[in-house]
Each structure stands twice: as C-alpha cells, then as structure tokens.
Amino acid sequence: MARYIGKRVLTMIPVLIGVSLLIFLLLELAPGDAAQSILGDYASEESLNELREEMGLNDPLIVQYGRFMKDLLLKGDLGNSYQTGRPVLETILERYPMTILVAILAVIATALLGVTTGLLSAVKQYSWIDNICTVIGMIGVSSPSFFTGLILIFIFSGKLGWLPASGSYGPQYFILPIITMAFGSCASQMRMTRSAMLEVMRQDYIRTAKAKGQGDKKIVFHHELRNALVPIITVIGQQAGVLLGGAMIVEQIFSIPGVGKLMIDSIGTRDYPMVRGGVLFIALSFSVVNLLVDLAYSTVDPRIRSQLVHQSKKKKGASA
Amino acid sequence: MSEKETLIEVKDLTVHYVLHSGTSEAVNHISLAMKKGETLGLVGETGAGKTTVALSIMGLLPVPPAQVKSGEIIFEGQDILKLSEKEKKKIRGNKISMIFQDPMTALNPIDRVGDQIAEGIMLHQSVSRKEAMQKACDIMEMVGIPAVRYSEYPHQFSGGMKQRIVIAMALVCNPELLIADEPTTALDVTIQAQVLDMINQLKKKLGTSILLITHDFGVVAEMCERVAVIYAGEIVEAGTLEQIFEFTSHPYTQGLFQSLPSLEDSKAKLIPIPGMMPDPADLPEGCKFADRCPVCEERCRKTLPPLAEMEPEHLVRCFRPLKAK
C-alpha cells in the first residue's frame, strides 16, 4: 500500500508541472499589463519599460518560465506579490487554513445532509419524503451560490438579525457560508446516494441477506449503504476538491479571507505571481484529494484493495 | 413409500404481478405437499413460475408488484403467508432457507465470506460472536472449504466455491427445508456434479428436506424422490420419480424428455417442443399447453382440464394422458 501511495505522489509531479506551464501561458494571453497595474494609468512609458525590464517581463516566455521553475524547485520560492511585495508562498499559507476549515466544514455538512436525504429517498422511493427531497435538491442545485448566499444574508442577517453577514471572527460567522456551500452541493450528493442505493437494493446479495432473516436496519446500513459508498465517496471527493480550491464566490460574498478571495483579488489586480501560486496550490489540493479518495475506495471495497496490492506486487516482481 | 410427516403444504397458491402495463399471472392455483426428509423437484422452463413459488414460501416476493391472490402455505401448523414480518424473519434462514441461482452475485462483495455465514447464526441462535465464527468455520469445512479462508472476500473464490459458501450459509442453522433455486445452472458441468453430490450428502447428514427448482431432468433423476412439472404457472403433472420418468403422461412432460439428448440412442434427433410458452399476462382460456400440444382437441382450448389422479400420487392435468398404466 505504501508503495502505491508513493507511486501516486510521484505521478502528481508531472500534473503540477503541466498546470504551471498552462497557467503561465494563459496569463501571458490575458489582456493587461502587470507594470501598468502597479504604476497606475498615468505612468510614463519610460518608467513602465524600466519596471518591465526589472521584473523580467520583457524576456521571452520560456526564460520567464525557466526562472520561475528554478526558484520554485531550488528555493521553494513562488516569487513575490506585485501588490504587497510579500512572498507568495507565505501569503497563501497564511490564507489556506481558513479555506481548509471552511471547506472541511462544508464537506461534512454536505455529506451528512446529502447522504441522509439520499438514503431516505431511496428507502422510501416514490413516497412524499422522496418527492420533497427531490424538489429541495433541485432548487439547491439550480440556485447559484451568489443567489443563495444573498438570500440567506437578506433573511438571517438583514430581517432576523440572527447571524453576521460577513467577516470571520467566530464560529457564528461560518454558519451562513457553510449553509450556502452545502445547499448547492448536497443536491448532487443526495441524487448520487439515492441512485447508488437503488442500484444496490436490486442486487442478489441483498435478497440473500433477507433470506437469512436479517432485519431491515442492518440490511440498509450494513449491506446496502456500505456497498453504495464508492460512488458516494466519489462525489464527496469532487466537492472537497472544488471547495479546497477556495469557494471563490462564497468567500467573496461573506468576506472570508481564504484562498478563493485571494485569487479573485489577485486576478483583479493582475498580481500574476499570486495567481500562479494560487492555481498551483489548488491543483495540489485536487491531487491530494484524489489520492485520498482512491485510498478511501480501497478501505471500503476489498476488490479495489486487492487490485492495488496486486498491482504493486506485480511491479515488485518485475523489478526484482 | 413409507408414510412420513408432512413438512410443508402449499394449497391453491395464486400469485400475480400487477404492473401498469397489465397483470402477469405467474402462479395459478398451485398445490404442493412435501414430506419430511424428501426431495421434491419442481421442473419447468424459464418463466413458468418456479421461482415465484419459492419466493412465496420464503416470504420474499417483491411487493409491489407481486400480489398473493389466494392460497395458503402451511408450515408447522401455521399459514406462513399470514405471519407478521417479524415472525417470518424468525423462519427465514432458520427453518426455511434458500440457495439462489447465481452464486456470483449472491454474496455481498465487501464482507468476508466467513462473516456472511456467521451472520445467519448470530441472527437465529443465542451464541457469542466467537462461537458463531467457530460454527461458520465448521460448516465451511463441511462444504469443502478450508476454514483458513474465513477472512477472504467473495471475489477471491471461484463460482463453484462461491456456491459452496452459499450452501453453507443456507444450511448453517440446520433448516427443516432448503429451497434450491437452480443451484447448479450457473456452474460448469464438472462442478455441477460435485455440488449436487455435496447437497445430497448434506441432506442425508442433516435430514433436511429439499425443494429443488430446476429445468434439468438429469438433475431431477439424480436428486429427487418426487417431481412436479409446472407450466405457465400451473402444475401439469406430479408424481414419484418413477411415475414421471416411466409413465410420462402429460404431453408437455413428454416434450421435455424428447428435447433431452439421450446417451443410449445417439442417432435419435432431439425433438424440440414447437412454439413458446404463453405470455403470463395473456393466458389462454383452456389448457395452457394447447397451442403446442401434439394431441390437442377442441375441448382443450375451451376448458381447463382438472388435475386428475391417474393412480395414487400421480396427478396429470390432461384430457388425453399419454400412458395410462
């Protein structure tokens, strides 16, 4: 298993290199000029040119990329922010815990809500519970988070005054953002749980369990839910990946100082080193989440587990 | 045959599947009786209603769409169909258990096989987890699987081994009645013989009665003492093994025999039964076999022949039985 994890970590390297190359090219294509945005609209052509020269913006792209990679690999340095002059890495690491905290809470809320409602609607298929869950889920999946967020702020902060609308000074500040994120994503979680459960409920081994005289509760939780977990974990993983990249819109609405808000601000000010660093971090979080998801599969399903063990054994045999 | 105690009696069972598109009359007025320790073969083609009978006895009919229209199933003096779900659970897997057709899909893929066997013991007997595991190991050895494989998962076993595990699971509580729904259909021929042989030995050892559902007369000849032939949800012929094999009376049963390859006469051509079984959603009025019957008469199409007794225990549903003894 350790061998497998090691292999997976190694395969992240080419992914990250690809992402860095892509983001370099995309930022080059993007309109606007970093020097201009630093010095302002009324800067003279000379001072602009001077600054460009100093920042190395006049060098060919390949040279710029080489310099970036050299700094990254040799010094672990992602450059300095154009705006604040502080190291990018430091800024991101400062902001990241907030994003991770919000993301984890939102994923937990989504999973709890989505899996419970999905389970209910599968077990009581076509009942009124199923219908209500489906309707609420459809509303959730079709409301964009800026809309849900604003409505929630309007009701709970504006009208009722129960919860703060923005900031991050205590637990109560996270309630609305987390509800906003969970509302949008728990619909897909619910639908996936429902269809995975319905699929499993039709299987022969469920009939076998019933033929043993097993009770309903045990059948649902032990036999059915555990077998439906692989697709459920897939969806949880997808959402975790997205949220760890910073729920940009939600962080923006509720002024949460996470990576998402940092990215939006940096894109606005053409702070390229910050954007590059942020994107690399998001790609890294995605890869890590993917690895965790695959490991979760193998704990849930012995077939996947033995496949992984088998694969690494085969590799061992080949290299010996 | 010696007089033995009746174990289970199915009386006038009618089960329909009610769907939006129409009603499928899967089982119509079937009556069966089994004595303790005997093996009864329920023979018929796919879709004849064999599995529906089995699931009715197990109380596992998918409701909806299934509806029991009439009949009772008497087991130990009470009608199983009228029992509460809780009481049915006490019988299921304990006094009556079932082996399903496809061992590949009958085991939970993410549970250790030993635990799946032990599950039944823990449900029906008041034993500790450790004792249940020990019992599961014992029965694994009994069906020819080394107990060291307790902790392995279903995907690590071959089809024949899986069926042994399924059989172990079914027999672990020492049931009075074992329903085997085509237990060997999904297996290789060589493995089939092994598994049948094992079921026979276990039956002798444990004294279990077996309701064997099959479409294979070879299996019936090897395993059964009595046979009921079922066609389009009705019993068309029933009797002892000898009566059915030597004095075949219903044209359908004869058709089944003629469509079997014979070892003695290798030049004899197989004679398939022409036509198809009628759609259970649209059954004909008279004899259900009339359209495919070589000796069909006018009255066969109008009135359903009664299940008449040719001689003691030998019942035939035909106006023109082939061989009267």
From TrEMBL, chain A:
Statement: the UniProt record of this protein carries the keyword Metal-binding: no
Similarity comment: family membership: Belongs to the binding-protein-dependent transport system permease family.
Keywords annotated in UniProt: Cell membrane, Membrane, Transmembrane, Transmembrane helix, Transport
Membrane topology: Multi-pass membrane protein
SUPFAM superfamilies the record matches: MetI-like
Descriptive protein name: ABC transporter permease
One GO term (biological process): transmembrane transport
Domain ABC transmembrane type-1 residues, every copy: 96-297
CDD domains to which the protein is assigned, alphabetical: TM_PBP2 (cd06261)
Annotated Pfam families: BPD_transp_1, BPD_transp_1_N
Annotated PROSITE patterns: ABC_TM1
Domain of life of the native organism: Bacteria
UniProtKB/TrEMBL annotation, chain B:
BP GO annotations: peptide transport
Keyword ATP-binding included in the entry's annotation: yes
Xref: CDD domains: ABC_NikE_OppD_transporters
PROSITE patterns per the UniProt record, alphabetical: ABC_TRANSPORTER_1, ABC_TRANSPORTER_2
ABC transporter domain sequence ranges: 8-257
InterPro entries per UniProt: AAA+_ATPase (IPR003593), ABC_Ni/Peptide_Import (IPR050388), ABC_transporter-like_ATP-bd (IPR003439), ABC_transporter-like_CS (IPR017871), Oligopep_ABC_C (IPR013563), P-loop_NTPase (IPR027417)
Keyword entries, A-Z: ATP-binding, Cell membrane, Membrane, Nucleotide-binding, Transport
Pfam families: ABC_tran, oligo_HPY
Superkingdom per UniProt: Bacteria
Signal peptide: none
Main subcellular location of this protein, as a coarse class: membrane
GO CC terms in record: plasma membrane
Membrane-topology descriptor: Peripheral membrane protein
NCBIfam families with a match to the protein in the record: oligo_HPY (TIGR01727)
UniProt family annotation: Belongs to the ABC transporter superfamily.
Protein name as it appears in the record: ABC transporter ATP-binding protein
